[in-house]
Write a structure and sequence with these properties.
Layout (H helix, E strand, L loop, with lengths): L1 E3 L2 E9 L8 E7 L7 E11 L1 H8 L10 E2 L3 E9 L11 E4 L2 E2 L5 H4 L10 E2 L11 E5 L3 E3 L6 H6 L1 H14 L7 E5 L6 H10 L3 E6 L2 H8 L5 E4 L6 H8 L5 E6 L5 H7 L1 E9 L12 H6 L3 E4 L5 H12 L7 E5 L4 H6 L9 E5 L3
Helix pairs in contact: 4-5, 4-10
């Protein structure tokens, strides 16, 4: 942490103007101070998601403070606590839930924090985690599981809570049902495969390369299918299911995949959309949707209780973080660039200076 004219400042990986990777660099901001009910954490590792790439490019309707630091996930050491925080000691090793809610609206009062009218995500709506110090509410801070590395702790929070809510709560997955995860790589698919398997689903994963599909199958999928121009994923899933269709489809791809996923649904099947990495505008065949009595559902992040549920699963070893790669602090720009690599499988982690 630098000191400038008597005021502490921190360095972070970020940008001062939206655009491509060429806009990314090191930015300098005042050091954050914890307020009432807040905790300051000395970041030891930050992890990136494809969300960070969209934030850099600029998300329509989502203004950010400039300069802006990227990163939603973090692990580190409690450095300072604000007034009212009496149950967390300085020096505690922790990880961070990146979902932020106000705790006062009707959704929060009902325990549906991810529906909060003021719901935000660390690094998207606020300054991010790829920096020296961050400040978050006490309720967002959880002990780092014993035996985990800093990288593992940073890799888990966002993707596992997303997969847990999408499959268990929104998708209403029941043991024995078929579950298709569209996309074998990236950061969220490895988490979704494990969660679906843990919840008792018969998991099939669809990807574009045999190598990534094989790695995905090793995480708990019953089968792996490789798409080709002649056989897109709807045809592959229809054949795999013996023309029955899939009970629950987990799709984060978007424009090209969602119409095909609808065609692959079983009668009464559910398609849960958690992202749109390849476009958000779709054209659907509604006849297929209503005739099969299927549904399309959206899901984002998780409630506080859902985060606690999946956190306990992680602590107990039923689920495990998948790290694509770890990078040293001075390799931050190259680490971020890995998000666009077609070989991405798991989370990209940036280790901060100790």
């Amino acid at each position: 942490m630098a000191v400038e004219a008597g005021r502490q400042r921190v360095k972070g990986l970020g940008f001062s103007a939206h655009g491509g990777l060429d806009r990314l660099g090191w930015v300098d901001l005042p050091a954050p101070e914890p307020g009432t009910g807040e905790v300051r954490i000395r970041v030891r590792a930050a992890a990136f998601n494809r969300l960070d790439r969209f934030v850099l490019e600029g998300i329509p309707g989502v203004p950010v403070e400039l300069p802006h630091i990227v990163g939603s996930d973090a692990s580190g050491v409690v450095d300072r606590v604000g007034a009212g925080v009496t149950d967390l000691a300085v020096g505690t090793e922790v990880l961070v839930n990146p979902g932020l809610w106000d705790g006062t609206c009707e959704y929060c009062r009902a325990g549906q924090e991810s529906l909060c009218r003021d719901f935000r995500i660390l690094g998207e709506h606020t300054q991010g985690s790829a920096t020296e110090y961050i400040v978050v509410p006490r309720r967002n801070v959880h002990p780092k599981p014993a035996g985990w590395s800093w990288g593992q702790a940073a890799a888990a929070p966002l993707v596992f809570q997303t997969a847990w809510r999408a499959l268990r709560t929104v998708g209403e997955l029941r043991p024995g049902e078929t579950v298709a995860v569209i996309g074998a790589g990236g950061s969220v698919a490895p988490a979704a495969i494990q969660v679906a398997h843990r919840l008792g689903g018969r998991v099939v994963v669809v990807g574009r390369t045999a190598e990534k599909v094989e790695r995905a199958v090793a995480l708990g999928a019953e089968a792996g299918l490789v798409t080709t121009p002649e056989k897109p994923h709807d045809r592959l899933l229809w054949e795999w299911s013996r023309k029955r269709g899939i009970d629950l489809i987990f799709d984060s791809v978007g424009a090209d995949s969602v119409p095909r996923s609808v065609r692959a649904l079983a009668r009464g099947g559910r398609l849960v959309v958690i992202g749109a990495t390849e476009g958000s505008k779709v054209e659907l065949d509604l006849k297929t949707l209503f005739w099969r009595q299927g549904s399309i559902r959206g899901s984002t992040m998780a409630s506080r209780s859902e985060f606690d549920q999946v956190y306990n699963e992680l602590v107990q070893g039923h689920l495990r973080p998948v790290v694509d790669s770890e990078w040293d602090w001075d390799q931050g720009i190259a680490a971020f660039g890995r998000l666009s690599d077609p070989g991405l499988f798991g989370k990209v982690v940036l280790r901060t200076a100790a």
